[in-house]
Amino acid sequence: MNQALDQSHGRYEEIFSAVEAPFAFVDLAAMWSNAEEMLGRAGAKPVRVASKSLRCRALLDRILKYDERFAGLMTYTLPETLWLAEHGFEDLLLAYPTTDATALGDLAMRSIANPADAPIVMVDCAEHLDMIQSVLGTTAAPVRVCIDIDASWWALGGRVKVGPKRSPIHTMDQAVALAKEIERRPQIELAALMSYEGQIAGVGDRPPGRRLRGAAIGFMQRRSAAELAKRRAAIVTAIREFADLPIVNGGGTGSLELTGAEDAVTEVTAGSGFYAPSLFDYYSRFSLAPAAGFALPIVRKPTRGVATALGGGYLASGGGDAARLPVPWLPPGLKLDSEEGAGEVQTPLLGPPAAELTVGDRVYFRHAKAGELCERFDALHLVEGDEIVDVVPTYRGEGQTFL
What we know:
Elements: H1 2-15, E1 23-27, H2 28-42, E2 47-50, H3 57-66, E3 70-75, H4 78-86, E4 92-94, H5 101-113, E5 121-123, H6 126-134, E6 143-148, E7 153-155, E8 160-162, H7 172-183, E9 188-195, H8 198-201, H9 211-239, E10 247-250, H10 256-259, E11 267-270, H11 272-275, E12 292-303, E13 306-310, E14 327-330, E15 335-336, E16 346-350, H12 352-356, E17 362-366, E18 379-384, E19 387-393
Parallel strand pairs: 1-18, 2-3, 2-11, 3-4, 5-6, 6-9, 9-10, 10-11
Antiparallel strand pairs: 1-12, 7-8, 12-13, 12-17, 13-16, 14-17, 15-16, 18-19
Helix pairs in contact: 7-9
C-alpha cells in the first residue's frame, strides 16, 4: 500500500511541480473509475448527479456527457438551480425546500416560459405550498413540486429515530394527504417523490478498528433498507391511484445497489462518489478511488519531527467528530497533531515523513466530504495521465456562494 502511495506522491509532485500551493485538484482517471463503479451498482436505473457534491459547472457538464445514464441534476438551493438553468442545464430537481420568495418568483417566470422543463422544487408540508402559491400571481403555468418522504428508520418499537431529520412526511397516509393537497391546487403540479436514506447511503459500515460498531451499523442498515423499500412502494402505489408520479428518486452514493433494486424507484442519486472523499473509505459494499484532494505548502519546522503546513482547517459539516477532519494523504505516514488538528492558518503534521519534510515542500490531503472542498478553492486542476489538462473554476471561482 505504501509503495503505491509513494508512487502517487512522486507522480503528483512531478505533475504539479510548477503550481504554487495551496491548490485543489481532481484526478480524472480516478473519477471516471468511480463513475463506472457507481453506474454498475445502480444497475438499470439512471443516476441523477448531486450538484452539491461537485460544485463545479465544468465537471457537472463532463459527467452528464460521459454516459447517458447520468441524467439530470439534484441541486441544493433554488438560486443555484436557476443559475444552472441559465447556463443550459436541464432536468433539475431541487433537493431541499426553499423560503426564497425572490427566487420562487423567478421560478414562476421560468415555468411560464418553459413549463415542461422548469426545475422541480421540494416540499414536505402545506406551508411550502402556500409560499409557492403566494408568488405565482395569475400565471397559468403550474410550478412542479416533489414530495420529500422521511426515509429514517424508527427502531425499538418506534422509540428511536435513526436517519436524517428531514421531512415530517413518514407514513403512507401523510404522503397521500400531502399529494391530495397538491392536486387541489391547480397552480402546483406533483411531479416527483424523493426519499434520502442517509443512515444507509451516508454511513460507512466499516469504521476503522471498531468491528462491533460496524456489525451494529450493518444490522441497522439491513433492517432500515427492508422497511423503507416496503413503505416506499406502498406510498408510490397509493399516490399513483389518483396522480401521475413520473419520478421516484432515492438513494445516494452509499446505497446505490440497494435503492436501485427497488421496483418503485425510477432513479437514484449520487455525487460524493465522484470525488470519493475520506468518509467513503469505510464501506464494505464497494470501494472507490481517491479522486480529489488539495495540496498545502510546508512553511515551518518547529521541531525536527514536526512539519507545519499553511492553512488546512477545511473541516466537513456534520456531527463534529474526528472523521470530519481532512486526512493527510501524501507522503504516506503523516498524521494530524491531536492537540491542534487542522487549523485555520496552520496545520502541524506528525509521523515519520514529517522529519524529512523541509520548508517549501508540499503535502497532499483528502477532504472528508465531497463538495465542501470547492468552498475553499476557486479552481480545480484537472489531471489526466501525467499532466494537467485543464484548470476549471469552482462555484466560488465563478463568484457563486449559494450556501
